[in-house]
Amino acid sequence: MKYEIVRDKKESGGKDGASGLIETPQWTLGEIALSKTTLEQIEEMIAYVKNKEKLLYAWEFNRFLKTGKGLSINFFGPPGTGKSITAEAIAQKLGTNIIKVNYGELESELVGRTSKNLSKVFQDAENNQSLLFFDEADAVLSKRISNLSQAADHGVNSAKSTLLTLMDKFNGVIIFATNLFENYDEAFLRRIIFNVEFPIPDQEMRTQLWEFHLSKNVPRNITYERAAEISDGLCGGDIRNITIKLGLKLLAGKANIVDEALINAQINNYKLIKLRHKKINPTEIVVEDAPSSDLPEE
User: Fold this and answer.
1) Overall pTM surpassing 0.85 (yes/no)
2) Domain limits of the chain?
3) What fold, for 203-280?
4) Splitting the chain (298 residues) into consecutive groups of 10 residues, what average pLDDT does each group show?
5) CA 138, CA 136: separation in Å to the nearest integer?
6) Residue 266 Rama label (left phi>0; alpha psi -120 to 50; beta)
7) Contacts 24+ apart (CB under 8 A), 265-268
8) According to the CATH classification, is domain 22-197 in 3.40.50.300?
């Protein structure tokens, strides 16, 4: 299986192998609800990139940073907490493009091909001065296989060794994101300077999320603070999906205004669907009462 960086040859003309994956960041830090701790760490990341020459040469950090002088970052936390869009926002803040990589797209059944694909992606990021972002990074940063039983196992370990070498030599910014941080190999952890947790949003962060996703132009008679209170436990991705459903209810004429009852109905519907996905019996879970017309749709 041959890996090609170009996603759409028609758009790229088939000439520039990196053009299909290079994206212009669409998010800014001001649009994302982040904790104070996370924002402080992001400020340090940006300070490193913008003042790298002073750190390395005026302060002589180059005495031990003799090869790659890049920055390796890891975002970890539950799905929907903003890891991917924060990577975009950092690229936007740095004035660079972003190359998004899913390791599954780089894997190959051909021995040695995955390592070549990884090398090409790093080279493209270096040549184009783009931030490199690996989503679902546990697939590539997981522990190496100790009991090698088949050729494929050797290929997996070879790819991981290649990635370690590439990280050591890389001069740009690389961000990994995962929901399974505990699966990382310690060799990779030693090369990552920032490990940033993205927790479930607290009350203040949920208020920001509702303010962002539910415009003041939307008819409503509930405060953002109250919406945050009744959405305890939800992440940004959850609130985004719920607000879309709220907007569709208004557009379809099924509701005239967004109120607490309508939000509760959609939250309960959303939670029940997630429970069904996890094969948990919804009858065992107590949720707020919702109008019968807003029960989960099959």
Assistant:
1) no
2) 22-197, 203-280
3) Helicase, Ruva Protein; domain 3 (1.10.8)
4) 36 39 93 93 93 87 78 94 96 96 71 82 94 90 66 70 92 93 87 93 97 96 98 96 97 97 96 77 50 40
5) 6
6) alpha
7) 265/290, 265/291, 265/294, 266/242, 266/294, 267/230, 267/231, 267/234, 267/242, 268/294
8) yes
